[in-house]
Input
Amino acid sequence: MTFSEHDGQPNASGNCATEHPWLECYPDNLPTTLSPRHGDMLAMFQSAVAESSDQEAIRYFDASLSYLELDILSNAFATWLAEVGVQRGARIGIVLQNVPHMIIAIVAAWKLGAIPVPGNPMYTSSELTRMFADYAPGALICHREHLATVGRALDDAGLGSVPVAHVSANDWQSQNDLRVLPPLPTEEVPSDRPDMFGICVERRGQRPLVDAAKGEDIGLILYTSGTTGVPKGAVISHASLAFNSSNSALWMGIDPGSRILGLAPLFHITGFVLHMGMAFATGCSLALHYRFEPAAVLDVIRVYRPTFTIGAITVFNALMNAKDVDREDFSSFKNVFSGGAPIAPALRDAVRERLGVTLQPVYGMTESAAPTHIAPIGVDVPVDPDTGALAVGLPISSTEAMIAGPDGKPLSPGNAGEIWMRGPQIMQGYWNKPTESAETLKDGWLRSGDIGVMDQRGWFYVVDRQKDMINASGFKIWPREVEDVLVAHPAVKEAAVIGVPDDYRGETVRAYISLKHAAVIEESVLIQHCREQLAAYKVPRSIIILDELPKTPTGKIQRAALREVARK
Output
């Protein structure tokens, strides 16, 4: 077991049945409170090494690394980090896709008491410059083909002397799948930019002088747009990461025999905690495949036969619409979850019909170290009769949540307000941003910036983001409600709704959609479809068809990008 349970304990603030109605919905196997077996992520990893040393830790195409091998490799790389000056508390920039080097570098950092700071390798030099200038890395790891971009960003941030190691995504494996992997490198690189794989080979068997962090020390800084759109580094403790890795493994049915398919990037909180963290918590296997590409992922599924995954709804939409997908491909899965954005009930049903798996919703944020809410396995997930939203889950063990009004006080069930969460997984604050930290954290509560509703039984529903609300002639319109109606049409693959300026109404509704393969439809037909299911003021005044909607690397549709297009 990876945790100790204390079932049936009310929260110290009062009676759990009345103040925490969700506890009555817990299945018998889920405790009301939970204390992880390990108080920090390195202790959790080392336990997995001790108990599952010969078990597969990482599958990477046709390569397999055991927990013992991962321990040896991270020791070797930690000795290099220490040699170039990394000390306890230093920040280690890791700008990588889903490759084994990512996990090796994270564990190596922890062994020195240093702090991993994952970054998106799709960021431009200017975006990386802002991050580097904020957290000042003591060392950095990036892909070989990104050395110039990263070097320019370090120079612009005044950090040109920072040691950099580079990575080839073709290391360990031999498939060299050009659908996702870059071509084999041929060009020379500067001698002061060593190869991480070579470092690990040359230093194999060496061990660092461990100065490991403790539970309340920082285990991760992860940059997020938060609720204001300004990039901020969420500071998350080892204890918070260990708690949510263990808690999530329990709620999501992960055990030592599980095989996790890594759909989410490890530089995102979902991948960090709900892929890597849960694997460490249970000593199970995690399959990485560099980045998401539907056809390549289907090949991984057919060979690896995963039992669990979690990804954004757009990922499952893409897999569902892959040309040669078959229900048999997904027959090995025991549990499949989706988070990052609300799931339209019609899309959940379509995935179940096409792939044969039922998506269980999850809700959380970078600032909450991934989930605060999960829909328990085997429990029917309700739909809110007023908004048509599918519930995002129940607050998980040792976690509280409420719907707060403008005054920060809880609203009664059925009333819409901001979702606030409190528990051991909540971040310490934002790196170097005390004002923003104070605005987001209130007496231990994390303000989500999401508008939601809690029903009488304690199920939570996300209506939409506060900043995405459309105000048309004084009427509030939540884009998600209109999007759910659009994706219910058999021709529509994906939908995104934004508000655009209107001289008469102030704002009016515009929809952007992509269509399923070979589908053809007129704008007027879709507008009529919306009129049949929505109040007149919610119906889009225009619908624009795109080949693909803009998305983040984690699969979230970018409404902000569409608003920018609309302004031009």
In short: The longest strand covers residues 492-502. The CA atoms of residues 95 and 123 lie 9 Å apart. The chain is about 30% helix and 25% strand.
